[in-house]
């Protein structure tokens, strides 16, 4: 699998009245062809900002992508592209589906036209061909009566169906990368399962690489190849899905895994919860951002940011517990290992 | 004590007339009871009527038909002091902690609004009570003079809980209290709700669509589909041995945070979507999507019957 996208030292800030909010603070990662990378973290950890930066969707001002950042798509820096190149990139090479299918479709345009728009711009089709192709796309994402449905408006679709339409629009031009920003958060469990299956199936057929952004570890278990855990604008741990679930090393990953109630947990047992709240990114802490909420916090954690430690070829963790001089700490019961 | 019913809901119906000929049957013939000190979970997809059900039980909506008994008294017939007593005893925690707090009131005044209305405490006593409530939900005294925008989602939900507790209720409807919160914060709020129940002997109606969280907090769980209660059982039994085909499908769609399990398990895929609750057809509401559907399912409404002890299901298969 070849490297498709490379993000190097991405730093994004927002200039507000209160000061500079450092939303993303030095994120680097790669995306290979045909794989699914999940970015997991709580709200405000910078996962959406990271993905929006890839398409240059951060409004500036107040947003500000720092000069040292690089986002290479097929060895070309997206951050240095001009408007015309960007227009070809967005929707053509890289496309995005958003969290809220209720507000991300245009309510005054027919569904077919919204899909066709993309095809006309990027593939140079005429209107008639584009509408025909739109019908095919709707069938592909599992919308019954596609022939009739192309002439309907978004309000005539349910939430799950609208998300399918969003996926159809995003995939219309056969992009290399699909960024899905919490695609199922607004949907019910049964619909969520349908949409996840659909994305998996389409990936198998089309070979699209997916960046899946979510806060729910349960959702990514079945679909992601690799997982990257973010906290306070930084990547704290990354690895293959099995590594993150069965051999997590960072206390924040432990906490995330543990705070989801499993169906086996005893009734009304106290759930593991992380004390406190994430740090204020107006004044990000000097040391490890998780230090103030971490049970295993040592003196050094408050003073220095830990460097990433390699566990295997694919797993990398930023935590001082992995330092040879640090005390050996076992993950809490029920975390790691097969269930 | 556990067997005493605090709330009894009998054949509750709540219809909304949306035009001359169209009736939206949000809650249709639902019966259940809630015992003193227990948590009854109510799950279902959006639009299944679970929130309407919760609000009607509190008297926020007037029931179209059926009875709601609180401590044996029909709440629609309460007047004057009795009605005031009921509104003090039954409280609600709302889903959206951003929309349910008045942005122009201080946290102290938000919490004390119920206290003022019911004339429970005044002056210094009132201030003391606010401080006590704040510490009960894990906030500080200093927070009383601040405004809602200064708080995070989890903290706001704590303020909402403090407000509900201010009038010392016996019964609280928790309407998706954790859906808008992050995973790590959800656990904090659920732990708080469980502790409060233990210490204060509260009774909850816990409405949610997150099935694993509902299992965790509830003693018994009811599953709703399109205005009907399709299954009701203790939470252990319901999750281990679901009987209704819809419950089975719903449970099999829960994401499992374990890659090996979630890659290999079989899911029961539901065809199509939830039909509209406007002018529903006769027969079982789930019949069009049910793979076990028989001719009778499309003609006769199934009734909720006790299949095993304390396990109720509304399906022609049983």
TrEMBL record, chain A:
Pfam families: ABC_tran, oligo_HPY
SMART domains xref list: AAA
Predominant subcellular localization, coarse grouping: membrane
Subcellular location: Cell membrane
GO terms (BP aspect): peptide transport
Cellular component GO terms, alphabetical: plasma membrane
Membrane topology, as annotated: Peripheral membrane protein
GO function terms (MF aspect): ATP binding; ATP hydrolysis activity
Domain of life: Bacteria
Similarity remark: Belongs to the ABC transporter superfamily.
Protein's recorded name: Oligopeptide transport system ATP-binding protein
Species the sequence originates in: Caloramator quimbayensis
UniProtKB/TrEMBL annotation, chain B:
CDD domains: ABC_NikE_OppD_transporters (cd03257)
Any Pfam family: oligo_HPY
Single biological process term from Gene Ontology: peptide transport
Keywords annotated in UniProt: ATP-binding, Nucleotide-binding, Transport
Top-level taxon: Bacteria
InterPro entries noted in UniProt: AAA+_ATPase, ABC_transp_ATP-bind, ABC_transporter-like_ATP-bd, ABC_transporter-like_CS, Oligopep_ABC_C, P-loop_NTPase
Annotated ABC transporter domain residues: 7-251
ATP-binding among keywords: yes
GO molecular function annotation: ATP binding; ATP hydrolysis activity
PANTHER family, A to Z: D,D-DIPEPTIDE TRANSPORT ATP-BINDING PROTEIN DDPF-RELATED, TRANSPORT ATP-BINDING PROTEIN
Family membership noted in the UniProt record: Belongs to the ABC transporter superfamily.
Name of the protein described by the UniProt record: Oligopeptide transport system ATP-binding protein
